[in-house]
Amino acid sequence: MEKIAVIGAGSWGTALAIVLADNGHHVNLYGRRNDQIQEINDKHTNEKYLPGITLPHNIFGLSSLRHAVEDVSTIVLVTPTKAMRQVLSDLKQLLTKKVTIVHASKGIEPETHKRISEMIEEEIPSEYLNAVVVLSGPSHAEEVSRRMPTTVTVSSNNANAQELIQDLFINSNFRVYTNADVIGVELGGALKNIIALGAGLADGLGHGDNAKAALITRGLAEIARLGTKMGANPLTFAGLTGIGDLIVTCTSVHSRNWRAGNMLGKGKKLNDVLEDMGMAVEGVRTTKAAYQLAKNVGVEMPITEQIYEVLFNDKDPKTALDELMARGKTKELEDFSEKLFL
Ligand SMILES: NC(=O)c1ccc[n+]([C@@H]2O[C@H](COP(=O)([O-])OP(=O)(O)OC[C@H]3O[C@@H](n4cnc5c(N)ncnc54)[C@H](O)[C@@H]3O)[C@@H](O)[C@H]2O)c1
Ligand SMILES: O=P(O)(O)OC[C@H](O)CO
C-alpha cells in the first residue's frame, strides 16, 4: 500500500483516484473548492463530476496542496493543461524529496507547443524529479468510475518507473500497457481531441457514419504525420493512445470534445458551448497549438486547419466540412506510406 497524491478533483482525477483506492492505496485527492472537498470526505461523492458514484473510503479529499503531497513519492497530475504551469509552479515550492510525477492530462500548450511531460521537466528542478510518466488511452471517467473494462498505456523514459506505475494502476477492470514512446503517446492523446471536435461538428450538421469514419481515418493520418515529424514512433498511432483513443473520443456520448463539436455544428457559438460544458474541453487550445506547430514544421493538417477556422475565425461549420471534401485530389497510400513512414 502506498500513499499517493492525485492533483485535480474533476472527473478524470476522481476516476483515477477510484482505481488507485480499489488497489488498496491511500489516496489524497486535491481540489481547490472547500465545499467539494467537504462533500468528498463527508458524503464520499463528487456529484458535479461523477454523478451517482460512491467513492471508496480510502480517498481523502484535501484542499491544501501542501498537505496533499506531504510524504508521498508519487504525484498524479490531472488538471486541465491550461492550469498545468500554475500547478507545477505551486508544487515546486512544496517538494522536499524526489517524486515520480504521473500525468494523465491531454493537451499541448499554445505558443510554446510543449507537451505536458516537457512542461513538468521545465518546471520541476531535477533534484526533486525521479521520473515523469504519462498515462493515456481510450478511457472515459464515467465508465472507469463504474469499473467498466478499460485499457490504457503508461509511458516514460525511465523503464523502471514506467513498470512501477503500471503495477500501481493495473487491476481486473483497468488494464495497463507500457510503451516507451513518450512523444507518440502524448501527441496521440492530445491531437485526437481536435478530430473529436470535428466528428461532433459533422454529427451536429446531420452528416452520417461515412463522414465520421472518414474523419477518424484521415484524422489519424494527419495526427501520425505531425507526430512522426516530432519524433514519435508511427506505430504508436496504431495503438491505444492513437486509433484507440481516437475511436472512443469520436464516437462516445461521454466525450466532452465530441459534445462541444456537436453543439458548434448545431449553430451554437464557442463561448456559449464552453460555458454550457463547464468542464475541460482540451481540443480547443490544442487546435491552436497544433495549427501553429504544423505551420512551423511544415506538416499538412487539413482537418485541423478547418477546425481552427471554425473555432477562432468564426467559419461556418458546414463550409469547413464542405471544403475538406473539395480539396485537390490526393493518393491515400502515397500520403501514408511514402510521406509518413519514409
Ligand atoms: N474526463 C475524462 O474522461 C478524461 C479521460 C482521460 C483524460 N482526461 C484529461 O484529464 C484532464 C482533466 O480533465 P477532466 O475531464 O477531469 O476535467 P474536469 O473539467 O472534469 O476537471 C478539471 C478539474 O481540475 C480543477 N482545476 C482546474 N485548475 C486547477 C488548478 N490550478 N489547481 C487544481 N485544480 C484545478 C478543476 O477545478 C476541476 O476540478 C484533461 O486534460 C482531460 O483531457 C479526461
Ligand atoms: O471527454 P473527452 O473528449 O475530454 O475525452 C476524454 C478522454 O480523453 C477519452 O479517452
From TrEMBL:
Sn-glycerol 3-phosphate binds at residues 106, 137, 139, 192, 245, 255-257. Substrate binds at residues 106, 256-257. It comes from the Bacteria. One of its GO terms (molecular function) is glycerol-3-phosphate dehydrogenase (NAD+) activity. It catalyses: sn-glycerol 3-phosphate + NAD(+) = dihydroxyacetone phosphate + NADH + H(+); sn-glycerol 3-phosphate + NADP(+) = dihydroxyacetone phosphate + NADPH + H(+). The active site is at 192 (proton acceptor). InterPro entries: 6-PGluconate_DH-like_C_sf (IPR008927), 6PGD_dom2 (IPR013328), G3P_DH_NAD-dep (IPR006168), G3P_DH_NAD-dep_C (IPR006109), G3P_DH_NAD-dep_N (IPR011128), NAD(P)-bd_dom_sf (IPR036291). GO terms for biological process: carbohydrate metabolic process; glycerol-3-phosphate biosynthetic process; glycerol-3-phosphate catabolic process; glycerophospholipid metabolic process; phospholipid biosynthetic process. Its main location: cytoplasm. PANTHER family: GLYCEROL-3-PHOSPHATE DEHYDROGENASE (PTHR11728), GLYCEROL-3-PHOSPHATE DEHYDROGENASE [NAD(+)] 2, CHLOROPLASTIC (PTHR11728:SF1). Catalyzes the reduction of the glycolytic intermediate dihydroxyacetone phosphate (DHAP) to sn-glycerol 3-phosphate (G3P), the key precursor for phospholipid synthesis. This is Glycerol-3-phosphate dehydrogenase [NAD(P)+]. The gene is gpsA.
